Every structure is written in structure tokens, then in C-alpha cells.
Amino acid sequence: MPIADDVRLGLANRFIVTVIPSNRSLGSWAKADGLDVTWEVPEYRAGDSWNQRWFFPGFTKYTTVKLSRAANAKDTAEVKKWLDEVATKFTVGNIQIELRDAQNEAVFTWELRNSLPVKWSIAGFDATTSKVAIETLELTHLGFLADDLK
Questions:
Q1: Residue 132 to residue 76: CA distance in whole angstroms
Q2: Residue, of 4 and 43, whose pLDDT is higher
Q3: Percentage of residues in the chain with pLDDT exceeding 70?
Q4: What proportions of the chain, in percent to the nearest 5, are helix, strand and coil?
Q5: Domains of the chain
């Protein structure tokens, strides 16, 4: 089945990462992993119902989001400033990941509620190779679904 002409496709190589509410850009990233959600599904069986089972919605679990890219002067410095603020002022905020299309317009946005960095790292340096230094930022969060809102 062909895709309709009015369907805007999100491109995996076009996304923006921003800290909300300060609207601070964390720059361009090459890769984002961990935008997923799973649910525990408890099962209940009554003793008098033989094999009849009932399923109920359980806890919602979100994976740590992992961003990676080539380290660069502008964006890596901006992440360091943000990490300094989080470490010294304990500022918890939301992280917005916005997927873009070929015209660089927003297709879909995930807002990671109460997000905190859990790890920042840069790949080891080796003078015998000619590789780009890759930085990685891992974020924990309380989710991107409206599952806890009343």
C-alpha cells in the first residue's frame, strides 16, 4: 500500500533535543535510543475457573534514553553547562525530543518528564587511530505518556 501524499514522514536522522522550560538546546545528536515503554501485566486466576485468566494493567516502565554524537566545540560545551547546573542547583526539568521531516518541520515530539542525566561519557582517546570522539548522554525520566495525569 503506498503512502498518501499528505503523510509527513519523520526522518531518523533529523531530531532536536531541548531542555524545557528553559528552552536550552542540547545541540544536534546522531543517535537516540530508548524511546520505549513497557507495561507489566499481572495475571489473576480464580481457583474455580479452571484455565480462565484475567489480565490487568500494571506498572508502566520507561527505558533510560541514550543520546550519542561526535563531540564538538559548541554542542558539547552547551551540554557541560547544563550538567554543571543540574549538579550544583539540582534543576529537574523536562527533555523534549522532536522528530523532524525532510522540510525540517516537527512530525512528533516526546517530552521526557522530570528528566535527569544519569551518565555522560566520551569514548577513550587513542592516538593510533583516526576516529571521531563520540560523546554519550544518558537520561532517566518519569515517562512521556500522560499515564500519571489526573
A1: 14
A2: 43
A3: 95
A4: 10, 45, 45
A5: 15-140 (2.30.110)
Give residues with Cβ within 8 angstroms of 30, minimum separation 6: 13, 68, 69, 70
Give CA–CA dist 19/93, Å, rounded: 7
User: pTM value?
Assistant: 0.83
**In what order do the strands lie in the sheet containing 15-20?**
24-28, 15-20, 93-100, 106-122, 134-140, 65-70, 31-33
The per-residue pLDDT of the chain, averaged, comes to 87
| Alpha-carbon torsion (147, 139, 72, 68), positive or negative | negative
Spell out the residues 6+ positions from residue 8 whose beta carbon is closer than 8 angstroms to its own.
101, 105, 107
Contact 141, 36 (CB under 8 A): no
Quickly state the pLDDT bin for 150 (edges 50, 70, 90).
Answer: low
Cα 66 from chain centre: 7
Contact (Cβ atoms closer than 8 angstroms) between residue 142 and residue 114: yes
pLDDT per residue as tens digits for the range 18-64: 999 888 999 888 999 999 999 998 888 777 777 788 888 888 899 99
- Which 8-state DSSP code applies to residue 123? P
Q: Distance between CA atoms of 5 and 99, rounded to whole angstroms?
A: 19
